[in-house]
Amino acid sequence: MTKSLRRLFQPKSIAIIGGGAWCEQVIKQSVGMGFSGEIWPVHPKAAEISGHQAYASLADLPAAPDAVFIGVNRHATVGLVARLSEMGAGGAVCFASGFAEAVAEDETGDDLQAQLVAAAGEMPILGPNCYGFVNALDGALLWPDQHGCQRVDRGVAILTQSSNIAINLTMQQRGLPIAYVVTCGNMAQTSQAQIASALIDDPRVTAVGLHIEGFSDLRDWEALAAKAYKQGVPLVALKVGASEQAQQATVSHTASLAGSDAGAQAFLDRLGIPRLSALPDLLETLKLLHCYGPLPSGDIASISCSGGEASLIADMSVETTLSFPPLSNHQQAQLRDALGPMVALNNPLDYHTYIWRDEDAMARAWSGMTGDSIAMTFSIVDYPTTDAADWACATGAALKVRADTSARFAVVATLPELMSPEVATELMAGGVVPFLGLREALAATEAAANLHPPKQQPVCLPGTAEATVTLSEAVSKLALAAHGVLTPQNRTARGMDAVAAAAVQLRPPFAIKGVGLAHKSEHAAVRLEVQAEDAATVAANIGTAEVLIEEMITDTVAELLVGVMRDPAHGFVLTLGAGGVLTEILRDTVSMLLPVQTADIETALTTLNCAPLLSGYRGKPAANTASIVEAVLAVQAYVLANAETLSEVEINPLLCTPDRAVAVDALIRKA
């Protein structure tokens, strides 16, 4: 661990300041977990608390404590933190609420939180509004409530901004060894990323699960991702805030900035951190990573004694990036030897029940579904809740497969309740992943197969100036053209004579647009295929004082949207997608954070539903991908040059032809 947090998370002495049930629980939980260090209650009146001698004040303690749980009101907490910092304590958990998270009800909360941070100085603090942590490796718990953790020699770390979710996660009955649970609270001083960075220095931590409500310092997260990848400790996240309601709840609960969900997803992608959408998925992914670490691919195999289950897993995998490669000749030979001629060999495989209860034969058959080309093999087994004695052979066969082959192997219950905690623990002890739930198993496997190195280049941090100016289309195009974006030849004109003069200077047919309207097509202010002799009349009919007349692009293969939005929480979000008037309906987009490279853009384009149009659909010519990439990089160049003042850039559409990519409409908003 980092020097600043080691004493807090691995203490030799714990002080508990305050009385009442919360503080007594901190003592009881550490004692119950077998903490071998000193426990010092601090209370001005009590002689002893929960069987431990109490000290009247901090000055009476035998030494500066390594870890302190402060369970008094918020105003007293600030003064105590100052005194602990002065005496050289290792760190403190600030349990009290009423700080920045309560600013909507009490406007003094922000100021009080600032006072708390100042009082702490160089001493690390967790919270405020924080339950603290469980260290199940050393039995050190600064935790004022129940929990479900047990002592372990190694395991995963879980960090969450919600103390209630943390409690619930400790109660899991899935065989997952949990080394640390840390609640972050308001993160007034120490961020979630900094906490995770400290925990992965403990070699007993195998993976880290992050429940994230909002990112604070992006540079902390970038440093964490780089460090975790270098040290081989995988990170996975459950990031909330996809809904408007969740974002509102996040701000009021933790005073953290949620930002846009597209930006959050793009940031996680950039960090190489897979994102889960549910707590069971997070736990199952951590379980897999604890056993095997990241998977080399999404190639999986499944074996079950029912065709229904084989069909079920095949159908459920359709919406994932996982795949079932065909059986190799070696696999087929091994399976035929184990199963005989009555079983049709496929992946997924229904092996029927001919060999049920024959543990060795089951192990030989299940081993046949492993191999160098398979990242994870599933054996689907549902243990009955009535009498599971006849299913002991399945547990034994799975353990034998792992012992004999060293292959990555999992036993999967289609429903979470169809595998007992005892079976899950036995499988985990033998290096077999016990997946509780078929959907959860697929989600976990997909996540473990999608871990990748973080981007080395840091995200571009935007300025904070509010956008006050929306540039006209013509001015926007000029600004972008100066950085390399191709635009049609055009003229801005007022009055019929000026339009007629502009028509002579340009090559028809023309697009004529009204100037000063945000959504010109909705006002019938865009006219296409206009000939020179009709230009003046068409311009007059549009009805705006000024029009933009430009040469039309006639050999279009596809229309794209290229947009960049300033996201205060995550940076500049680049969105690529299907463009034109149906952009909002199609919602065919992909988002990334700037800066991006050529390969990033090329890969992103292939993920779009409209990608076949770009590559040439049904004999039609293909778009010039290199020109599209150049256009996107040119937009990026403009953004990076104006990062302090820029709010939004949009090209819609970028007309893609076999030869070039041309921005025929553009918008810029900036300070």
Shape: flat
Q: In which order are the strands of the major sheet placed?
A: 9-8-11-10-12-13-14
Biggest sheet record: 7 strands, mixed
Q: Could you list the spans in which at least 5 consecutive residues all have pLDDT below 50? A: 245-259
- Span of the ends, CA to CA: 43 Å
Helix segment tally: 23
Beta-strand fraction estimate: 15-25%
Q: Kindly state the mean pLDDT as a whole number?
A: 91
Approximate helicity band: 25-40%
- What's the count of strands? 30
What does the model show?
The chain is of the alpha/beta class. It has a 7-stranded mixed β-sheet, with helices on both faces. Strands 20, 25, 26, 27, 28, 29 and 30 form a 7-stranded antiparallel β-sheet that branches. Strands 2-1-5-6-7 form a 5-stranded parallel β-sheet, with helices on both faces. Strand 8 and strand 9 (140-142) form a beta hairpin. Helix 13 (359-367) packs across helix 14 (392-405) and helix 18 (496-505) crosses helix 19 (535-542). The chain is flat and about 95 Å long.
List keywords for this structure.
ligase activity, 36% helix, 7-stranded antiparallel beta sheet, alpha/beta, 23 helices, Succinyl-CoA_synth-like
Question: Layout of SSEs?
Answer:
Blueprint: H1 3-9, E1 13-17, H2 20-32, E2 38-42, E3 48-49, E4 52-53, E5 67-70, H3 74-87, E6 92-94, H4 109-120, E7 125-126, E8 133-135, E9 140-142, E10 155-160, H5 163-170, E11 178-183, H6 192-199, E12 205-212, H7 218-231, E13 235-239, H8 244-254, H9 261-271, E14 275-276, H10 279-292, E15 300-304, H11 307-316, H12 329-339, E16 349-350, H13 359-367, E17 376-380, H14 392-405, E18 409-413, H15 421-429, E19 433-436, H16 438-449, E20 469-471, H17 473-481, E21 490-494, H18 496-505, E22 510-514, E23 526-530, H19 535-542, E24 546-551, E25 558-567, E26 571-578, H20 583-586, E27 589-593, H21 598-606, H22 611-615, H23 625-641, E28 646-656, E29 661-663, E30 666-670
Parallel strand pairs: 1-2, 1-5, 5-6, 6-7, 10-11, 10-12, 12-13, 13-14, 15-16, 15-17, 17-18, 18-19
Antiparallel strand pairs: 3-4, 8-9, 8-11, 20-30, 21-24, 22-23, 22-24, 25-26, 25-28, 26-27, 28-29, 28-30
Helix pairs in contact: 3-4, 6-7, 10-16, 12-13, 13-14, 18-19
